[in-house]
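Entry 14. Structure prediction run on the chain below.
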Amino acid sequence: MARDWSTMFTADGAAATHTASFADPAVAGRRLVAVAVAPASIAPQPGWTELAGPMGMGELSVSTRVASGGETSVTWARDEGASTAPRTLAGWVESRNDIGPVVEGSVQQYGQAFVSPAGEVELAPITITAPGCRVYVAVSQVDGGEAWIPQWPDLLDDSTVFSAPGHGSEGVRLAVASGTPEPGTYPLVLRGLPAGFQVQVVAWAMEHGSSSDPEVPGQDAPPAETVVEAENRLPGAPQAEWDVVGAGDPSIQGFATSMHVTAGGTLNVKVHSPAAWSGIVYRLGWYGGLGARQVDTFTGTAVSQPHGTVDTETGMVSCANWSVNGSWQVPVDATPGVYVIRVALDGDRSTASHIGPFVVADPSRKAAVAVKLSDSTWQAYNHAGADPADPFRGRSIYGSGTSAGFVFDDAARSRAVSYDRPLVTRQHVPQTSFWNAEYPLLRWLERLGVDVDYLTCAQVDADPTVLHGRQVIVSSGHDEYWSAGMVEAWRSARDMTGGPHQVWLSGNDVFWRIRWDNGRRTYACWKDTLDGQLNPSGEFSGTWQDTRAFNGDRRPPALLNGQRFRLNGISAYPLAADSRHAGSPFWRDTAVADLTAGQTWTSPAHIVGFEANEPADMIPSEAPHGLIRLSEVTREVADMIADDNGATYTNTGSYTHAITAFRSTAGVVVWHAGTVQYAWALDDTHDRNPGSSQVSVTLQQALLNLLADLGVQPPEYPLPETLRMPDPVPLTAYGFPPAPVDPDPGPDPDPDPEPDTAVGMVRLLAADLADNPLLTDQQIRSILGIEGGNLKLAAATALETIARSEVLIAKRITTQDLSTDGPAVAAELRASAQALRDQVAGDEQDAGVDAGRALLPVWSFPLPVPWGDTLL
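Output returned:
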């Protein structure tokens, strides 16, 4: 457990970039630390997280990253906006297998530290709370003209000092030291520095870590507890291999004909390419920090696709007239998840772009957590045009784009968009793409091994039951564009007894109303709110919250989930909680829990952004009953506040952000982060990285606490050392009311069903016998309807329904003389449910049936009673 290697680099000539070669190729999962000083502003290449920025007479740059594997160098470049190139540079890089992420709040930087006549600089003390943390201190000087060697504090026992001769008089000198003290608070006094001069200093700490921990998956691990945990132990691929820059190369662009595909199915793609090409399919995840795993490959033919069509009324561009020139046959055993296809020319693999992200689903299972992607919003900002030779020249619902950039212009906007065209949102509007705030959430959930499925907007609109049978459903990222079907699906899930709890890790959500068409491959959004009148279709298509008379179906999101959009983008502020919130179980085992009267905890600087909401109780008449605030901060904002209708976004005034939660009358908890970028606190790998780590162990632990209290605990093994596995607490500890008790449903029309009936067979499989039933016969009939009559799937859903209900768990313990450990009983029920689902998959494979296709169940009964809203 130590350093793999370190290397020093000096450059004495002017250049826009300076590259330091590593002593050895980097090993996947190792943590790299790079320090450099130059007499001008510099920045490391993309993929590195910079901890310290420009300071003093130049820049002392400190950055880290997890190695993808095979990297051989790091490049420091002239920072954007810098007036001159760095004329010299001194750099130092090391690779270690015993360090983890930067300790939250540990970074100190001093841009103008003046050395005392005694040659000393006194820094703020540093506190270490966990064993094994490594403390670093870096000191630099520009144009000093004098050699010096620091006398380091005793806690630093490993040091390097060297100089770069410079160009003219602009030499630089760099010193770096580190050590692993025992937990405690240590003074930091540096001695032996050039008296009377100015130096730059950065101090920071790295958590203890190990390459035998989850950074390198699968080593010395116990058996995986979930499909997702097992999947993420497989070898990953370096990001440089699977990712592209922006939207990729404009000469090869394409799209899939569906946003989701079942395991065992076929995904057709349409690609404009001047030459033969091939596609490499990757599943996105954690994979030891690499972020994706290669799953498959397939080939495609060269096709110069025709011009797409442009609708004369709405301006919508569609490339549906392109021909299919490639297909991926999805393996039957493909793990459900989010996938991308990297399509590249056969003769030049660097000429590449992405198809996707898209979802691979397994209808035979329902994971405890389902994350809904914000794909309708990706398309709203997608400006792909009709000319395949110039794909970036086109219109979105916001304006027009070219290869050079995007112009927000309401006069030029389209009124409808199509999924049948390349997805180029990431090129110029990365803040609203998957890669900004959805990808870091995915990485974190999969790192923890959470049992998770992913859903598209069209899936939720077409079949609201995809939300049922879950423990938690999640809205992620910039979730702005919602159809009536999507809104109703989430509302009905919220109001169902035993329905899934809702976690909104999103902002500006449920804002614009859309209307699907063409098999949910297109949708219209006229934005009547901006135009101030009803559109020609006669069906309102503005913001859901618009208060004006032409909105005949007003359903403000504040009443749905407890938040409304207020802070426009691009904005960036810290989230804050104070001593008023410290007692909430949400914050247990975090820095917030330790706050005393008058104290405030503040997150990294970019968590509230790029757009964000306000709590619904800012307008009390539109606040759900029992809404509580779990954090709160108010600040003055200029030119970024939206009005109540969502028609203007340039107001100035006070803005309040808060995390909120409430419990519906059906007992469902609705928790809302109120910001697009909460996920930046979970993982640092995402687009628009601001150059400093936004990861917050406090916000990670708080979310982990919430998930546990909502019935979702990840496996013990992959849990990072920085987090503590929560013991679930009753939801009433949050201040929520108890879960409702179902009223007496009256006499059962079939109080003692025979085992040879469908209801009776489900009861036998679920061990919910008629003498002390937990579910009514009508509820079981409804479940049978949901599951298409399949008895085993119906029994699995019944078990999961019981496991989600505190009332039913308590009744099961009482009537069946079980252990009084409610969470343990719920876990056993969920395990039994999963075993039944696994049996269904096995039954279908034994019968030669494709488990990923919707066919008649292997073991089923006819359904004389249609299902309705009676179950939940």
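The first helix runs from residue 227 to 232.
Filed with the rest of this week's runs.
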